[in-house]
Amino acid sequence: MLSSPDFSSARWRKGPGSGDGNCVEVAQVPEAVGVRDSKDRQGPVLAFAPAAWESFLGDVQCGTFDL
């Protein structure tokens, strides 16, 4: 389990096709990748180990989660 990484100075970004609607933002610091709700920027951040995030992205690209 990760300790609480500091995302206070992280650069948050979201996908170019997300528009102004319901989306998430992602930021990376050396020890973790954070994901948050773009409508609640002061709310909770889900933190993932970089290796876990890379594995997730690989599965997304391979279509593992396609419905």
Characterization of the model:
This protein is an alpha+beta fold. It has a domain at 24-62. Helix content is 19%, strand content 22%. It has one helix at residues 50-62; strands spanning 24-29, 32-37, 46-48. The protein has a three-stranded antiparallel β-sheet with strand order 1-2-3. A hairpin with a 2-residue loop joins strand 1 (24-29) and strand 2 (32-37). The longest helix is centred in the C-terminal third of the chain and has 13 residues, at 50-62. The radius of gyration is 13 Å and the shape is globular. The protein starts with 23 loop residues before the first strand and ends in a 5-residue tail after the last helix.
> Beta-strand percentage?
15-25%
Uncertain segments: none
Total helices: the number is 1
N-to-C span:
30 Å
SS-based class: alpha+beta
Mean pLDDT: 90
Label this structure with key terms:
alpha+beta; 3 strands; 22% strand; DUF397 domain-containing protein; DUF397
